[in-house]
Design brief:
There is one protein chain. The protein is α/β, with parallel strands linked by helices. The protein is built from six helices and nine strands. Helix content is 28%, strand content 27%. Strand 2, helix 4 and strand 3 form a beta-alpha-beta unit.
């Protein structure tokens, strides 16, 4: 097998792997996961990224015991394999192949690309999810695309300042929490909570 060099990994994965301070992302993840605390979920289906060991440890601290992780970048997947244990299934596939209706499951979908190109993903997952998109396009465009694709009409939106700044969207089909933060670049998160 060829030696893997950092230049072989995707640019985003390289940046994350090299960045030791991920406190803001952890604060955001803590808040978003707290929204699902009473849902009796024990399984994660998601995208863990290059720091899979930190991700799994965090999820276990929140009570999750089973993990189905998807990765399409082969070099990132090889990096992840080094840090796996028996509770993690790693699938070198598109997350669209995941069953979107598994009971007891939180879908943690950290795409790191703009919502502009993720319409199929926005439609596929119906409940118990957190979707993270790059903020390289405006929040308005991202939210408009999200609700248009899902064929939902926003009935009301409430701005909240605590415990961190976020918006709650009420639609004709559910309730969503959206927040923005800066990681290696601006990011938008949307969580379907009801």
């Amino acid at each position: 097998m060829e030696d893997l060099k950092s230049g072989d990994m995707t640019t985003y994965a390289q940046t994350l792997a090299a960045q030791p301070d991920r406190r803001r992302k952890k604060e955001v993840r803590d808040f978003l996961f707290s929204l699902f605390a009473g849902f009796e979920l024990n399984r994660i289906v998601g995208l863990a990224g290059p720091h899979i060991e930190d991700y799994i440890e965090f999820c276990k601290s929140k009570g999750y015991t089973e993990f189905e992780i998807y990765e399409m970048d082969k070099l990132t997947a090889l990096h992840q394999l080094v840090h796996l244990n028996d509770s993690v299934q790693l699938k070198l596939k598109n997350i669209l192949e995941a069953n979107p209706d598994q009971p007891g499951t939180l879908y943690d979908l950290d795409y790191c690309v703009t919502g502009r190109y993720m319409k199929e993903h926005m439609m596929r997952f119906k409940s118990n999810f957190i979707m993270t998109f790059s903020g390289r396009v405006s929040l308005k465009e991202t939210m408009d695309t999200f609700f248009d694709v899902r064929q939902e009409k926003v009935v009301d939106m409430v701005e909240n300042k605590r415990p961190m700044r976020h918006n709650t969207y009420f639609t004709n089909k559910g309730v969503y929490v959206q927040l923005s933060y800066r990681d290696t670049s601006p990011m938008f998160c949307i969580a379907k909570i009801a």
